[in-house]
Amino acid sequence: MSNKKALLVAALMLLGIILVACQPETVTETVEVPVEVTRIVTETVVQEGETVVQTVVVTEEVIVEVEVPAEEPEMVEPVTFDSYSTTDIPTLDPQVGEDVVSIGYIENLFVNLTNVDLETTEVVPEAATSWEVSEDGLVYTFNLRTDIPWVKHNPVTGETVQEVDADGNPRFVTANDFVYGIKRACDPNIGSYYSTVIAPQLLGCQDVLDAEDPSAIPDELWDGVGVVALDDATLEITLEFPASYFLVMTPMWTMAATPSWAIEEHGEDWIEAGNIVTSGRYVLNEWVHNVRRTVLRNPLMPEDMQGSGNVEKLVTNVVPDTSTGYALWLNNEVETSGIPDAELEAHLEQYGDETVQIPDLAVFYISFRMTKAPFDDARVRRAFGAAFDRATFVETVRQGQGLPMKHFAPPGIFGAPPINEVGVGYDPEFAAAQLAEAGYPNCEGFPTVTLLGYSGQSTLNWIEFAQANWEENLGCSADLIQIEQQSFSELLGATAGSTPDEEAPHMWTLGWGPDYGDENNWVGDVLWCGNPGNRQKRECNEIDDLIVAAREETDPAKRVEMYAQIEEMFFGPEGEYPFFPIFLRIAFVAEHSWVDRIPALFGGEQWYNYTIDNDAKMAARGG
Prior knowledge:
Blueprint: H1 3-22, E1 28-47, E2 50-69, E3 80-85, H2 100-109, E4 114-116, E5 123-125, E6 128-133, E7 139-144, E8 151-153, E9 160-162, H3 175-185, H4 195-198, H5 205-209, H6 219-223, E10 227-231, E11 234-238, H7 260-266, E12 277-278, E13 282-288, E14 292-297, E15 313-318, H8 322-330, E16 336-338, H9 344-351, E17 355-368, H10 378-386, H11 390-397, E18 402-404, H12 428-437, E19 449-454, H13 457-474, E20 481-486, H14 488-494, E21 507-512, H15 523-527, H16 542-552, H17 556-571, E22 579-591, E23 595-596, E24 611-612, H18 614-620
Parallel strand pairs: 3-15, 19-20, 19-21
Antiparallel strand pairs: 1-2, 4-5, 6-7, 7-11, 8-9, 8-12, 10-11, 13-14, 14-15, 16-22, 17-21, 17-22, 18-22, 23-24
Helix pairs in contact: 10-12, 16-17
């Protein structure tokens, strides 16, 4: 080997040793680099007329190819929707969820049979691609897609993988998973409020729900529930009667497909991060109870089901109150926020272009325990209802965030009467006359009663307004109305139909938002005496016969007439008044300009359709 070649090889070997010794364990790439190479050569030169052979050292630059560590790709933060909540998630179980927080997460973690179009509110395909209804209106056959995977997310590694069965076969959502979920919704042992909502419509479901011994429900009762998987891709549901509104119930979370094997393995803990198996557009990445929760996009969801939005991550921190959340919004740390009453006027002046007003169709009311004197007298209930000035309340206390309501179901719900045509509403003369007729003229001899409200200043403002109205219009001094406030979950427990009268309050604040767009969801699912919830402890009468007849009626025009009659029987001059409606909520919400979303009227918010202008968000944060 010549000296030139030997030196070049040595130089390259030395460079290679240095690179290998210093190189971390990472991805490499081949690049060309210049290397100085020193070599010894002999050459002939003429010196003083003589030819002389001499040896010289020459340094040259040559280009060689070497492997070097590849540049790390620039880390791109996922598009994140930052939010806050004043409460933990009560549950992530589709059949158990009954509150807006739980339902929001369930909507995004699980697929439903159908969905609701946010712009038209029409029922559209989700797991079901199409459906047929029998001529008698009793049998619904749903054709399901077979490519929606069941997935499990590892919060430690951040990996989302498809579930497999005992034989190693990948699990996809099938008709059997819907059968399991829907039958489970009929089970009295899970303690689901929404079992009572779906049971009347489904063949055999009410029989299971009313089983004499819930711990040993006979197989024949389970077999009698009208939900069957004809094959993996075909679900058949049979109804008790031809409920013309059943299709608008099918997007409900209560009838979502549910992973039986995960529930059997983990029991009540199946919903915890690391255990939960889901099928929706997001996966549960983190759930630190009462502190924070995080969901991430499900990378295995079929592309055409991902939604129109770009939110890849949603982080929610639990804060003590709306005022704290609003402070986060002012600091650009969350995307949306409620607005504290005391801040609303100043907010609208300064941030009017970052404020939206959302009619969520929720109607709020003050309810009575009808078996607890003095509210066991319908005249007393009518008096307290008619003495409440709804219009002034909405204008002053609510600061314009709503519409006065004198019957229950709001505009936009099929069968709801026109907003001003049914019900007494505010009529102080009628109220005073009713109370006098009941034996309490100018509130003389009226006993001390209790009023339980949600926790928070907003509800306290509401209650104090009611006290002032009752004192002015009925003569009932404020000290006759003993006030207590509790959290939402505590209030539900205190007012449950199973709570003894002596432990229950006389009155309480509550509200109802729609689960589906039909009057049956209002008078049927809330006020029908057959509901096990029956917080007012109503006794069944002719109104309930009409509620049942209305839900079974197939003629839409007749149903509209029947529901107007039902609302009048509840809230008219001779109405029963199990509670009195006050307002339809149309709340102001602080929403940064980089957020683009359509709020959901039915079911949970569809985060997968939210869009964020991330550049604008980062710029506002100074990033």
